[in-house]
Amino acid sequence: MNQEHYALTLQLAHGVGPKRARAIMETYPDGEELFKDRPEHAPPNWPSPTEWKALQQNASKLLERHDASSIRSLSVFHPEYPEALRQIPDAPVILFIKGTYLPLDARSLAIVGTRDPTPMGMENTRQLVEGLSSYQCTIVSGLARGIDAQAHHSALHMGLPTWAVLAHGLHTVHPRENQALAERILGDGGAWFSEWPLGTPPTPGAYPRRNRIIAGLTEGTVVIEAAIKSGAGITAHLAHQYDRGVYALPGRIQDVRSQGCLDLLQREIARLILHPQHIAEDLGWAQSQKVDPTHNWPDAHQRIWNALEAGPMRLTALTEETHIGTEKCLHALAEMMWVGDIRATHGWYARDGPMA
What we know:
By secondary structure, the chain is an alpha/beta fold. The protein contains 14 helices and eleven strands.
């Protein structure tokens, strides 16, 4: 069996985590040799030869399903496996990727935070990604509500590639409200990543495991609004353990959504940033040519986006400013809201970010 088949079979075996699976593959490069003697790193409940054969058959079927769904399966020893992720001690023994991923992709940054952000947190995320656009980095996050979704949206706005790391199989998107965003990530040259095979549902324990992939894939992690005990905080601590850059934006000391960032700063786990340039300087990034995020937009979308630069507007004002008929304007607004380019509150339309 090939390395991907071997890796997935080990992952399916009960009690074999990523570290143990990798150690077994290093000690026994040929999976067929495993049952000539008990593997040195085998758990107490190591499968019998019959059970191992059943696991192999299950893994084979899953890999066929991934191939049929245009999902790449890479063992940790595959030459195209992300090198930064391979370097962490608990790297997934097998990784599934849907979308566009090039092994030589450079400059990647994770942006994570609360699912319940303040308008200031959303705006800070947008401005941070906008400021990073001249460095042509890949934005990585977890496709959760709030800061994660805003990071992906902003990357798409600025023409930056973005990767979503999921805590379940790549047959679905969770939360469902981010389905359109997830599809747009694929359509605009980004990718979805997961260590879980097709059919695996999201479970609470999968999210902390997912966070190590976010931290491991990237050169640095930025936390924008998070409680002290949070998934974003877990990601930051993991990035620190992996000797990657960790950065945090300060916030209001009275707000629980700022206390996680302030705690990371106080404990010197994260570095204080006030401008995207601080991250670029710390990571040694040089500027590239800035990309226009709207060059492929339909004319009506572009006119609406330009009109909203001055701030939120009502429909009547938008139609007058853009010279677009009401029906066509409503249709364009609906499309832009669906993919997250703009948002509406109480009849006011505005660019993605805080409402006036």
